[in-house]
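=== Structure Prediction Worksheet ===
Name of assembly: unnamed complex
Input type: mixed (protein and possibly other molecules)
Chain count: two
Listed entries:
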Amino acid sequence: MPPGFALPALPATVPTEAYVVLSAVLFAIGTLGVLLRKNALTIFMSIELMLNAVNVAFVAFARQFGQFDGQIFVFFVMAVAAAEVAVGLGIIVDIFRSRRTVDIDDVSWLRG
Amino acid sequence: MEFVVFVIAAAVAVAAALMMVLQRNAMYSALFLVLTFFCIAVFYVLLGAFFLAVVQVAVYAGAIMVLMLFVLMLLNVAHPEPADRRLAFLKPFGVIAALVLVIELAVAVLQAPTEPAAAVGGAATGAARQATPIARPAPATPAPAFPLPPEGVGAAEVGHTQALASVLFTRFLLPFEVTSILLLAAILGATVLARKRPETT
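=== Predicted Assembly ===
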């Protein structure tokens, strides 16, 4: 884009702060989902959203510092998330087998 | 141009995430979450992490969400949640807690040194931070047995798959192998949990 043609208000690249703010907003939305929803599966999805929000911040910082470490860490977060989903869904299926529900209000045996 | 794409993708991501949270039907929640994951893949592309973008679409939007939808359909619980009966008075507190978290994170971000990469080792962050030169390019790994990318892996190089792999398989080899053990444990755990158990209860 020729320099005279570009919109002056727009920065050339997106600043890291924008990604961090976006990451914070997505993380908070994930928290809201965990707090509001009663379906165990939806809560699980909200946790996935929180993990992804953190990943965005990791990649943004990796670009800012010109290092790979942030991106490598995202790989490990994805691997842990995959393991978590596998085990967590197994637990949910098991709870559903014995209780016929995935509503977390009905599965409060551990409440003190 | 990049900024416009970012703004559009960010708006779609936040809107889809909100819809995911506020949706009563779990099936729609899952589909909105897939949309959010695609937007996050767009962010990865904008940040130069092309390989991560592919992994995001393949693993998250592909494998993990398919697993979730599979369980959702298997259990047949996608019908809308009934409007709440007990503990309904707790919902406003959830909203308030999330808003407080947003404000806290916003304050933390806005109070951080705004000068990118230059202020990290600066006086504002203290002497302890100065000892670790975060802002420098990656130091060369000792005795690289693999064809490493040209030294000084800069911001322009970040995200190239070959360079990423050479870091992953040299400096981060041990965590990589530990991850494989973790995945094996997850496979075993999921198998044990999903197994049909004898009627002993």
